[in-house]
Specification:
Length: 278
């Protein structure tokens, strides 16, 4: 599957920057996203550790749907990769954003924002649009899971950057908007979130300890509690998020540099909705 995605990325013009980034800086890992919040809707994830994670379960669903309709196995892999390569491009866009932000601000911040999502949904839509034109046979199949969200994204993107931004802002209301929040407010929001994540990780580790060292009854109770908590993967992600955020906020100048960087990115976003040269 990973080979098929890499090949699909290589066959499109809108993924030129993404495949260069993948070749130089990133990897695609498959993973069952058990325990990840919102797991049914997460198709791919860039947690900021340099890897793109993809939710195998969704691709398995798509593959068995196609196989059930009599599509050959090789063809199934190729079709599913082409259908979903836009989601991989979206996550690679996060990787590229984080990397360029580090070059501008001097330190990495993996925290998301509405602006970052808007840029990556724009990339995703451009890839989706090209994929549909390049591989018209995709339209012959119903892949299930992502059909309605893919169609909604394309519609929003075709209406122009203002509409796309507004729709992304609604979809990502849980993220801060960098350009409409003051530096102080932004730093405070990020700091509080990092502290929350630290607390989550500490609580998780305390239960893990009991699961390792407690007596039989304590172990059983701890394991039951662990099963209800977010996954170990999610906890690692939260810890990395907290660590990079705290490091970023050590120098208050960085928030201002981030704002400048995001302002320039968004200027391009609104100026050239369909094509962007890097
Ligand atoms: Zn995203």
């Amino acid at each position: 599957m990973i080979t098929a995605w890499t090949r699909a990325l290589g066959e499109l013009a809108s993924t030129r920057a993404h495949r260069r980034f993948l070749a130089a800086h990133s990897r695609i890992l498959t993973l069952n996203l058990d325990g990840i919040e919102d797991k049914d809707n997460v198709i791919a994830l860039y947690p900021g550790d340099g890897n793109v994670y993809v939710n195998e379960r969704i691709f398995d669903d798509m593959a068995s749907r196609l196989a059930g309709k009599g599509v050959e196995e090789d063809e199934v892999v190729r079709l599913v990769a082409r259908k979903t390569v836009s989601h991989v491009a979206h996550e690679l866009c996060h990787g590229m954003f984080i990397r360029r932000l580090r070059a501008s601000a001097g330190e990495t911040l993996i925290a998301g924002s509405v602006e970052q999502e808007a840029l990556c949904y724009r990339d995703e839509a451009a890839v989706l649009d090209e994929a549909q034109r390049r591989w018209p046979d995709l339209a012959e199949h119903d892949f299930g899971r992502t059909e309605s969200s893919d169609a909604a994204l394309l519609e929003s993107w075709r209406k122009g950057p203002k509409r796309l931004y507004a729709d992304v802002a609604k979809l990502c209301a849980h993220f801060p908007t960098i350009l409409s929040t003051s530096n102080e407010e932004l730093a405070k929001t990020l700091k509080n979130r990092a502290a929350e994540f630290r607390k989550d990780v500490e609580a998780y580790r305390a239960v893990e300890d009991v699961s390792r060292t407690g007596d039989a009854a304590e172990k059983r109770a701890a394991d039951e509690a662990l099963a209800k908590l977010p996954s170990k993967f999610e906890m690692d992600r939260r810890l990395l998020w907290a660590q990079t955020t705290e490091k970023f906020l050590e120098d208050p100048q960085r928030v201002e540099r981030m704002r400048k960087f995001v302002r320039a990115e968004m200027k391009r976003f609104f100026a050239r909705p369909k094509k962007r040269k890097r």
